[in-house]
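Appendix B, record 7
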Amino acid sequence: MSCAVTARAADRLQIFRAPDSTATGRAVLILPGGGYRILSMQHEGTDWVPFFHSLGITVAVLGYSMPDGDRNLPVGDALDAMSYLRTHAADLGVNPAEIGIMGFSAGGHLATVIATQAPADLRPDFQVLFYPVVSMMPGLAHRGSHDALLGADAPEPLERAYSSELNVDSLTPRGILLLSADDKGVDPANSISYFEALRNAGVPASLHIYPSGGHGWGLCDFPWMEAVLDELQMWLRSF
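Structure tokens (predicted):
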């Protein structure tokens, strides 16, 4: 995969600074889902600002490009966004060593690609993944995301290159994964395989699988949302 930084994503970022009175210097880059075809910018994006502000965390929501035949477009936007946040950290009141990434579904896949394959200076410091697409391998991949990003006839070497469970290393940041056991959109085995890869690499990881809820709940009316927010808050405060 190409890890060249582009000059597009700064214009696609919505940045919400944490209130000065509570700011911790931490920030999170949010990548909404949508199968690499659309973006769920509200319930998997801007709706999360109050939650993170309550923890003193600055939020950046990225409206990354759809592939449209060029898989480097979304990856380039995410790399450029990480570069922008680190370069402008002082202006944003952010510690450049405290910038995480958070992704939902296909946005979760993009987040894991950045977490596992970006140059060291552009890797996030933590990752939060909601019901993520992780693998592009047959039998595990979400077919719609696979075809939109890589093409329906992608060769196996390309599928392996974009299967994040196969690309975890010691530089991969700590992570938390949250999903539903009854997810019919993205096989929960994606998250389980990524958690196991993190654990096998010695990377701190947490996995939370809720009994119901399906796919794509974001910050909507979800039966386990109170537990989600409590556990995410505790995890963020644990390091």
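Remarks on this record: The radius of gyration is 16 Å. The mean pLDDT is 95.
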